[in-house]
Amino acid sequence: MTAQREKARRLRELHRPGEPVVLANVWDAASARLVAGAGARAVATASASVSWSLGSPDGGGADREQVLARTAEVVRAVDLPVTADLESGYADTAAGVGETVTGLLATGAVGVNLEDAEYDPQEAAERIAAARAAADAVGVPLFVNGRTDVFLHGLGEPEGRLDEAVRRLRLYVEAGADGVFVPGVADPETIAALVAAVPAPLNVLAAPGFPSVAELAKLGVARITLGPGLAKVAYAAVRRAAEEVYASGTYTSLEGGLTYPELNGLFTG
Predict the structure, then answer these.
(1) What local confidence, expressed as pLDDT, does residue 117 receive?
(2) Domain for residue 243, yes or no?
(3) Is residue 260 situated within a structural domain?
(4) Residue 179 in domain
(5) Model pTM score
């Protein structure tokens, strides 16, 4: 437990506005070790990536036990703080979210993403409070990242989304969230407004065409995640190579892949 508390402290310290921690989200032990070897200071899972690797769609397709088991594999694979994307908590009630977080802490993870999804903001805040209480009960300073999907899902009229996102995020911080996550926002003006309006480190979801890490740092962002980006690239490579061999009988798409010793060495070194 002492080691877990230390990792939780390290994860918390990495969230510095203007000096963002970059999380290239993973989905299994191999991807976690590759990301750690590339220089990551912490490791994060992405719910979509994990769900796809388990043969389920994102958005509740995988169940709590499957996701926690996969999170445990990721935690065992790296000596870094691990934060897990648990969608809306894999539970219908706030009490159920607390049970999910208790299970998460048992894996050794030290951070969690919880999204408001289809929930009323007040109910979403209660779910975050339950997560906070579950962590406090075992004495681990879990980093709770409260996510709103106002921009991602285009909730309400465009001109009112910033105010609605701020309203929700302030509720989540009051309920115990340590950080806030707003996927679906790419323009610098809105990002800067979120940084200024919400009293918690801001996490944004980056993708091609998005401001660079340096540009986001200047805006005051504290955390940058890639979401399912790495998984999409990996699965695209699989499809590209398979289509080539079946369509033309050639293998050029296999060039540039990691070698057998490199991949096997992830688990034998």
Answers:
(1) 82
(2) no
(3) no
(4) yes
(5) 0.96
**Among 109, 129, 104, 111, residue whose Cα is nearest residue 119:** 129
Tell me the C-alpha distance between 230 and 237, whole Å: 11
User: Closest Cα partner for 168 from 147, 153, 183?
Assistant: 147
Task: State the greatest distance between any 2 C-alpha atoms of the chain, in Å, as a whole number.
Answer: 59
Instruction: Using alpha carbons, select from 175, 173, 182 the residue that is nearest to residue 155.
Output: 182
| pLDDT band at residue 269 using 50, 70 and 90 as cut-offs | low
Residue 103 one-letter amino acid: G
> Residue 19: how many CA atoms within 13 Å on its side-chain side?
6
Instruction: Residue 158: give the domain boundaries.
Output: 2-228
Q: Looking at the domain assignment, is residue 265 inside a domain?
A: no
pLDDT for 158 beyond 90: no
Complete edge-to-edge strand list for the sheet that includes strand 111-115: 21-23, 223-225, 202-205, 179-181, 143-147, 111-115, 82-85, 43-44
The count of residues in the chain is 269
